[in-house]
Amino acid sequence: MTLEEAADALNAITGGATDTSLMSAWESGRRRTGKRNRAGLCQLHRERPEVLFAHQDGAATSVLETSGTAVVAKVLTRWTDLVEAMVSVAAGAREQLVVTGSRSREKAYPAATVPG
Question: What percent of the chain stands above pLDDT 90?
Answer without folding.
Answer: 26
